[in-house]
Amino acid sequence: MPTEPSLGVVIPALNAGPGLAHTLEALAEARAVFDLDILVVDGGSDDDTVAVAETATESCGARVISSARGRGTQLAAGADAVRGDWFLFLHADTVLQAGWARELAAFMATGRNRAAYFSLRLDDDAPGARRIERLVAWRCRVLGLPYGDQGLALARDLYTAFGGYPDQPLMEDVYLARRFGRSRLVCLETSAVTSARRYRQGGYWRRPSRNLFCLMLYLLGVPARMIVGIYR
């Protein structure tokens, strides 16, 4: 008899308590589709992040581990510790919309030599949010650069073959996407609804401009550790 595909979900978290519960709730539907292991990798939170993750154990089977702080570091630690022939890397403030698990399962059945990400949607009705979504869709389609807030799903052996996430404080998603190349990246139809908090706080023009400047610096070879101060 065919067995369920095994999927390990890795969620790096740092003071993510307010949104993490919704992120984990949306993963519960996958229990009917996959042999599922959900791992929250905490980077030293001082809020209720760990308690929220532990509370979700019964509903979605989440586990919690700790690692050194830094998204790339936490993602790499999670990949080493999670179970599954396939990985789904997901931010702690990103909520996958209903039906994501079956769409991902259909993608997984097509082969193990590509990676998939979800369509970005921000949880804000402001016109600026729609503008950001269009810009992200263009960036992914033309440049082949999906970011981590869109999730990333790929086979474990593909992740290993391309070296996995680097130990750096940001741009870890850009690093891996550039190694894959646009031809290996597939956009799924299901939305990944991500918090627009950083745009509401930083401005729908100013924040994207700063992000673009940071990306340009990184693509020009400036080390990620030197860009952190500008990004934050």
Describe the structure.
With 232 residues, the protein is an alpha/beta fold. It has one domain (6-231): Spore Coat Polysaccharide Biosynthesis Protein SpsA, Chain A. Helix content is 43%, strand content 22%. The protein contains eleven helices and eight strands. The strands form two sheets. A five-stranded mixed β-sheet has the order 3-2-1-4-7. Strands 5-8-6 form a three-stranded mixed β-sheet. Helix 1 (17-25) links the parallel strand 1 (6-13) and strand 2. Helix 1 packs parallel to helix 2 (49-55). The termini are far apart. The model has no long low-confidence stretch (mean pLDDT 93).
Quick overview of this protein structure:
It contains eleven helices and eight strands.
How are the SSEs ordered, and which strands pair?
Elements: E1 6-13, H1 17-25, E2 35-42, H2 49-55, H3 57-60, E3 62-66, H4 71-81, E4 86-89, E5 94-96, H5 100-108, E6 115-122, H6 127-143, E7 152-155, H7 156-161, H8 172-180, E8 185-194, H9 197-202, H10 206-219, H11 224-231
Parallel strand pairs: 1-2, 1-4, 2-3, 6-8
Antiparallel strand pairs: 4-7, 5-8
Helix pairs in contact: 1-2, 10-11
